[in-house]
Amino acid sequence: MKELKIVIVSDSTGETAQNYIKSVTSQFPTLKANIVRKPGITTTDEIDDILKEIDEKTILVQTIATKSLSDYLRAESKKRNIEDMDILNYGIRKVEEATGLEAIREVGLTRTLSKDYFNMIEAIEFAIQYDDGKDPRGFPLSDIVLVGVSRTSKTPTTMYLATKNLKVSNLPLVPEVRLPKEIFEVDPERIIGLVIDPNKLSTIREVRSKSLGIIGESIYYNDTRIQRELEYAREVFKDLDCKVIDVTENTIEQTATEIVQYYFEKFPEERDKHIQ
Q1: Is residue 200 a known part of a binding site?
Q2: 168: which strand partners?
Q3: Bridge partners of 193?
Q4: 218 annotated ligand-binding residue
Q5: Structural domains of the chain sorted by starting position, each given as residue range(s) with its CATH number in brackets
Q6: Does the model's pTM come out above 0.90?
Q7: Nearest Cα to Cα of residue 54 among 25, 29, 34, 72
Q8: What is the 3 state secondary structure string of the chain?
Q9: What's the whole-number mean pLDDT along residues 201-217?
Q10: Is 202 annotated as a binding residue?
Q11: Would you tell me which of 133, 139, 171, 213 could form a disulfide with 182, CB atoms 3.0–4.6 Å apart?
Q12: Residues whose CB falls within 8 Å of the CB of residue 235, separated by 6 or more in sequence, listed in order
């Protein structure tokens, strides 16, 4: 098996470059890549120390935003016949050429983007874990809890909000099913009740039933049953003392936007945690 040493030099964490290199080397199944990461590099002395440790058989990958430092590394690598892959500045240069704009070259911006990305993934995993009330322990851990009867778009709205780094769980309301005690442990201002016009709900449920191969009349979209469920939902919303949003004419995005605006009004101190 062929071996290749790859050294990543970064003024930030080097995580972006590492992910990039792993994507590249995955295309070479017979290659053993020895990836060494050198993060937080900010001086020419540190660069000199790194270059002393490697030879011309090594590929050097840099993500250094400061132009003078990046240029120094490139020049010194060339003197030693070391291959220098400058993936950050290559991208910056292409964008500058295409737009006429000048990059700010601020250290750590990539790290911030990576943090936002992983926070979003965490929020999506949270949404999946606590979807549909399957684990009530998630309610007190949530930024927002959506509550409503079946087919009020709780799950898709939950997933959309997760892309904004919001940890959201949801609870389906069924008159015959007792509310979990954990829902009463949640700050009422974090709970959003979703309501919908009964006629539209009946249509949505009928279409859903037929798509699942259910033929004939069903209590699921029976008008009397729907009225009972919606009345029960409004009683629950009153007991929880929560905000209520009518989703009848809303798209998922519109409902999510309304929820986000309300959330930040109530919890402005949490705004910086989430993607805007």
Answers
A1: no
A2: 144
A3: 147, 244
A4: no
A5: 2-111 (3.40.50.10700), 114-272 (3.40.50)
A6: no
A7: 34
A8: CEEEEEEEEECCCCHHHHHHHHHHHCCCCCEEEEEEEECCCCCHHHHHHHHHCCCCCCEEEEECCCHHHHHHHHHHHHHCCCEEEEHHHHHHHHHHHHHCCCCCCCCCHHHHHHHHHHHHHHHHHHHHHCHHHCCHHHHHHCCEEEEECCCCCHHHHHHHHHCCCCCEEEEECCCCCCCCHHHHHCCHHHEEEEECCHHHHHHHHHHHHHHCCCCCCCHHHCHHHHHHHHHHHHHHHHHHCCEEEECCCCCHHHHHHHHHHHHHHHCHHHHHHCCC
A9: 81
A10: no
A11: 139
A12: none
Amino acid at 107: V
Q: What would the pLDDT profile of 78-94 be if each residue is shown by its tens digit?
A: 999 999 998 877 777 77
Look up residue 112 and give its two tokens.
């911030």
pLDDT at 112 over 60: no
Q: How far apart are CA 232 and CA 229, in angstroms?
A: 5
- The amino acid at residue 228 is R
For residue 149, say whether it is annotated as part of any ligand binding site: yes
Q: What is the pLDDT of residue 113?
A: 56
Is 23 labeled as ligand-binding? Answer: no
Residue with tokens 């053993």: 32
Q: Determine whether the annotation assigns residue 148 to a binding site.
A: yes
User: Cα angle at 90 between 87 and 95, to 5 degrees?
Assistant: 125
Contact between 146 and 170 under an 8 Å Cβ cutoff? The reply is: yes
